[in-house]
Specification:
mainly alpha, 156 residues
């Protein structure tokens, strides 16, 4: 049985609760065992951090639906793979400090490409959307995890 604790204060907690009870998501976790459920939750948190704290993102049309996508506050929700990867690094450092690398490795994230794999897994089950310009390559080699999380990365 899958058990994930979702902070109530997280703005998308209802989305996360519905995601973790969705059969498509549970099937995804069975099919792709590289990432724990917490890795998917982390990517959603990093996306929220990118949009709300770093003010990243722009209004884009979804390649899947053709609609402009905004959140409940009418904020644009498209963030590039590069920006999401950098935001995930910054969010992990802000939440876990020098344990960030250990925490991410424990849930299956060991490189920026893993963030892209998680995003594209969620696109595959229609939980996230992409634009025509988006590609898994957008997440490739954004930063070196050992440098980003092992004391050589300067928090600014």
């Amino acid at each position: 049985m899958l058990c994930v604790v979702i902070p109530v204060a997280f703005p998308s907690s209802s989305l996360m609760i519905s995601l973790f009870s969705d059969n498509n998501f549970l099937d995804l976790l069975k099919r792709d065992r590289r990432y724990k459920a917490e890795a998917y939750f982390f990517v959603f948190q990093a996306l929220h951090y990118a949009q709300e704290k770093l003010h990243l993102g722009r209004l884009q049309k979804s390649e899947t639906t053709g609609e402009s996508r905004t959140d409940e506050n009418n904020h644009a929700n498209h963030v590039t793979g590069q920006d999401l990867s950098r935001a995930a690094r910054d969010f992990a450092l802000s939440q876990y400090g020098f344990l960030a690398k250990t925490v991410l490795e424990d849930i299956g994230i060991q490189k920026s490409e893993d963030i892209g794999e998680i995003v594209y897994n969620l696109i595959g089950i229609n939980v996230m959307h992409k634009t025509a310009e988006d590609s898994p390559a957008d997440f490739a080699n954004i930063f070196d995890f050992s440098l980003a999380f092992e004391g050589q990365y300067q928090i600014s």
